[in-house]
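Q: Here's a chain of 173 amino acids. Please give me its 3D structure as tokens.
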Amino acid sequence: MKLTIALISAASILTFSGQANAADAPTDPQIAHIAYTAGNLDIAAGKQALARSHDKTVRAFAQEMVRDHQAVNDKALALVKKLHVTPEDNATSKGLTKAADATRSKLSHLNGRAFDKAYIENEVAYHKTVNGALEGTLIPSAKNGELKSLLETGLNLFREHQAHAEQVARAFK
């Protein structure tokens, strides 16, 4: 059973129908909300894994996700407060949340190795999706230099997360 089907729809949402023109590009408040939402969703997924998994490697990965995404989200909150920007909910944030909720629901019915395998496969897909959106849409669309810099820092970290998730996933093949 592939749990990443929900993420495929999220990927299509995040790509903004391929290359978005400037008029369709997300605004900085929307970008801030998308990035913060994506981080919160991975924190929730990590917490679910910590509650359900007994695999040492999966648990260590989940702890890393919770720690790192919380740290980036804390920096994002500090930045939006400094800039007096109110993150703006949008269709992308809502689509990500809907897809992640569906995935967490499906994962909640799995146990043991089946859960671990599905969780880590989802993490690989999720990081690929979010990293692609950061690289192809969110960073290029960001107007504020500090926001762009934070997104670039996040992208570097999340690329490491993707590589780590791919490494862990190899153990479940």
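Q: Can you summarize the key feature?
A: The chain is about 80% helix and 0% strand.
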